[in-house]
Amino acid sequence: MPIEEGKDSNQRTQSRAFPLKIIKFILIFLAFGIGFSLLSMYMIRYSGFQNIVSTARSGFQPCYEEPDGLNRWVKPPLRLTHTMSDPELLWRASIVPQVKNYPFKRVPKIAFMFLTRGPLPLSPIWERFLKGHEGLYSIYIHSLPSYRAEFPPTSPFYQRQIPSQVAEWGEMSMCDAERRLLANALLDISNEWFILLSESCIPLFNFSIIYKYIKKSRYSFIGAFDDPSPYGRGRYNLNMAPEINISQWRKGSQWFEVDRRLAIYIIKDTLYYPKFKNFCRPGCYVDEHYFPTMLTIEASHLVANRSLTWVDWSRGGAHPATFGRGDINEAFMKRITEGHSCLYNNQPSTLCFLFARKFAPNTLEPLLQFVQYE
To answer: Within 13 A of 216's CA, how many CA atoms are on the CB side?
Structure first.
């Protein structure tokens, strides 16, 4: 019958069209999926390339792309600026390798640490002294936070200021500044010896003599003596006991040289620091007593009990003599470098002082004539 035949024909047409729609849908879905995958791959590759370019331009490398993991710990910080607080800095600097054999070629360096309020007027002398010895020294400067040095890029003092705070003479803030210098210098694993200097200090001999003298010494050089006078034991406070008793109380110059082991002792101390902060107040001059006393208690067998920095106290007063332009002549320089006697590695020696102070800025020109450092 025509009507029934028409219905069958339509049903057969619809049944054939339905699978075609499914196949068409699947093909469209596959095409869309493949296209999306290709687009995603392109975006990832392009984004990765852009990240590499960005990384190269900025100098930043994420942890998972660190090319040489050991370099992260071996190489010194490229910049001395950081945002660490003092507690964070001291904690970071106190981390000590437990394996004594270094898995890399380590050339031990001297860290010259300058504690100053502002400029370094004698820096040309130090630049002459350091020239040709790159890789054997590091420079660190602690100044007033407001001071900004303007050394040229060719100077070893260029960008060597550390994050600093105000340090007052005779106050605990002075010891804080010295610990801050030590902590920043300890971040360079190659720094082995640490010398505290002022802006009025000069080296008395060439770099090779000083480097060899310090390298071969069995001891660190920090003054630590028992002074029974009112300016020594007279500054002791009974509240420091039992951690510190009067027989352990020591006095010495703040201008020291310590090796890495003693530098760690100084920056990790939490036992003696509160005693000195609370009970060695104005009139005690904490910078003359804290380190000498603490190191005498903790490591007296490692201390030479003398300073490497020559000063002249013959003029009297609370401060050593300051020398001006008119003082600088050949006889004066011989007086500083000759005629001394001391012990070096428990043997008599006439080479006792490697540095001297206090020299006024106007001594720069005559000093350059007398100190050649050849």
So the answer is: 10
Q: Which helix (H) or strand (E) holds 259?
A: strand 257-259
Q: What is the DSSP letter of 224?
A: -
pLDDT bracket for residue 71 (50, 70, 90): confident
- Pair (201, 302) in one structural domain: yes
User: What DSSP character marks residue 362?
Assistant: G
The predicted-structure confidence for 336-369, as pLDDT tens digits, reads as follows 999 999 999 999 999 999 999 999 999 999 999 9
Residues 341 and 241 in one domain: no
Does the pLDDT at position 270 exceed 70?
yes
- Residue 257 three-state SS: strand
Omega within 30 of 0 (cis) for the link into 282: no
295 and 317 inside one domain: no
Q: What are the residues whose beta carbons fall under 8 Å from the beta carbon of 56, sequence distance 6 or more? A: none
Extract the tokens encoding 78.
């490229």
- Check if the beta carbon of residue 44 is closer than 8 Å to that of residue 50: no
| Domain identity same for 349 and 271 | no
Over the stretch 117-130, which tens digit does the pLDDT of each residue have?
999 999 999 999 99
For 272-301, what is each residue's pLDDT tens digit? 999 999 999 888 999 999 999 999 999 999
Say how many C-beta atoms besides its own lie within 10 A of residue 244's C-beta: 24
In sequence order, what are the residues at sequence separation of 6 or more whose Cβ sits closer than 8 angstroms to the Cβ of residue 155?
123, 127
260 and 140 within one domain:
yes
What CA–CA distance (Å, rounded) separates 158 from 338? 34
